[in-house]
Amino acid sequence: MGEPSFVTPRGIALDADGSILVVDQDAFGGPGGVIRVDPATGARTTVSESSTSGGPSFVTPRDIALEADGSILVPTRTPSA
Amino acid sequence: MTGGVIRIDPATGARTAVSENSTAGGPSFVDPEGIAVTADGSILVTDQTAFGGGGGVIRVDPATGARTAVSENSAPAGEPSFADPRGIALDATGSILVPDRNAFAGMTGGVIRVDPATGARTAVSENSSPAGGPSFADPNGIALDAGGSILVADFNAFGGGCGMGCGGVIRVDPATGTRTAVSENSAPPGAPSFIEPGGVAVEPAVPSLGSEKAKLKKKKIKLPVDCAPGAAACDDDEVELETVKPVKVRAQAAAKKKIVQLGSATFSIPAGQTQKVKVKVPRKGRKLFERKRKVKANATLTVTGPPLQSGTATEQVRVKAKKRGKK
To answer: Among B40-54, B74-88, B198-212, where is mean pLDDT lowest?
Structure first.
C-alpha cells in the first residue's frame, strides 16, 4: 500500500512531536480521514480512515484539534436518517 | 445532515464517538465545521447551519458528550449575526474567534469574537470596518501566531474572478481589525499557488541559545537560552546536551569513542528574555570534562505545549570547564 493521497485537504494541526496532521474531507475513496505528514520529508501516512481501526465513520470531516493527551478530535457530518 | 464529534487514538487510529445528536441532550449538530479545545478541556464546535440555519458555537463536554449553546443569533440577541461560521480559534484570554464566510453586509464575511461566558458577539474585522487592506471573500480557517495576531485562510480573497479561486492568508490585528496580506499568489510570486486554502496552523517559535559559549561550574553547565521575542513564554520547555562528535571518555587507547550525554533540563523563561539554564552533567559527562576542558556540544531545544504544538532546533555550543582542581 502506498502513501495516502490528498483529495480535499481542509484542516491542519501540529501534534506534540511536530508531525503535521491533515484532515481531508474526501480522501480514502470519498469519506475522508486523517493523514500524518512528516514535516521534514513530506511523507504521508494514514492515521485513521473509515475502513480501518473500527468506530464511527467519517463523513466530510473538515477540521481537526488535539486534546491535552494527544487524542485527535474531528467533527463529522452523518447522513440524515 | 446531522453530525458529531469523533475522537481518534493517534497511535492506532481507532475512532470513538464523543457526541452525536441521538446520545446526549443540548442543541443538535447540523453541519459541524470547526473544532477547538479550551484550556479546561472543553470542546468547542462551530456549526454552519445549526440553530435554525444561521449556525453558531456549541460546547461539548469531552467526557459525557453533552452539548450546550455558547452563541447563536437569538441567544444572546444582537449583532453581528452568524451566517456561515467556519473555523474556530481561541486567543490567549480564552475569547473565541470565528471566521464567518457570509456574515456582515454584502455577505463577504469577516471575523467575529465570541465571549466564552456570555456568548456575546463582537466584530473583529470585516471589509468595511476597518476599511483598507485586503478584503475577505470566503474566510474559512483561523489560527493565532505567537504574538497574538490572527491569521485567516481565505478560499477566494485576492481572486478577482480567477475561476477555481485564488485564496491566500490574511493577518488581522486583534485590537483594530486591520487586515494585511501575509501571502497570496502574486505576492510574493512563485510556486506553489494557493487555489482554495481552507485551514491554517502556526509552527511554534523555538527558543535559541543566547550565546555560542557556556561554562561548566559545580557539575552544572550554565547555558544561556533566549526565549524568542514574540513567542509565548517558554513554559516547561526542554534542552538536551550531547557531544557533537563521538569522543573517548577515558584517555586509554582502547577506550571506544561515543557520543556522550552532557545532561538535560526543563526551563521556563518569560517571552523575549534570555536566562541561564542550569544543566546537571551526569557522571560520564563529568569524566569527559576531567579529561578535556573544552567540549563542543549539540544543544537540542524542544518546545512543548500548551498550546499543543511542538518544535525542535539543534544548535552548537562550546562548553568550557573551569581549570582542573577548581570546583
So the answer is: B198-212
Of B228, B240, B175, which is closest to residue B202 (Cα–Cα)?
B228
What DSSP letter does each residue of B257-288 carry, written as one string? EE--EEEEEEEEE-TT-EEEEEEEPPHHHHHH
Chain position carrying cell 458555537 = B57
Contact B310 A16 (CB under 8 A): yes
| pLDDT value of residue B161 | 57
Rounded to the nearest integer, the mean pLDDT of chain B is 89
C-alpha cell recorded at residue B39: 484550556
> What pLDDT was estimated at residue A52?
81
Pick the CATH number of B208-321 from 3.90.550.10, 2.40.480.10, 2.60.40.1400, 3.40.50.1360: 2.60.40.1400
Calculate how close chain B gets to A77, using CA atoms only, in Å: 4
The answer to whether B295 and B241 are in contact (CB under 8 A) is no
> Where is B142: in which H helix or E strand?
strand B139-144
pLDDT for position B310: 56
**Regarding beta strands B121-126 and B110-114, do their DSSP bridges make them parallel or antiparallel, or are they unpaired?**
antiparallel
Distance to chain A for B142, nearest Cα, Å:
10
Q: What is the pLDDT of residues A42-70, one digit of tens each?
A: 899 999 998 887 788 899 999 999 998 88
CB spacing of B3 vs A76 below 8 angstroms:
yes
CATH 2.60.40.10 applies to domain B4-184: no
Fold match, B4-184 / B208-321 = no
CB A79 within 8 Å of CB B12:
no
ipTM value, please give it: 0.91
Residues B8, A17: C-beta atoms closer than 8 Å = no
Q: Is A43 within 8 Å of chain B by CB?
A: no
Do B262 and B281 touch, CB atoms closer than 8 A? yes
Interface contact A63-B34, CB threshold 8 A = yes
List the grid coordinates of A58.
467519517
Q: For strands B67-72 and B56-60, give the pairing.
A: antiparallel
Task: Please spell the DSSP secondary structure of A44-78, one letter per residue.
Answer: EEEEEETTSS-SSPPSS----EE-TTS-EEEEEEE
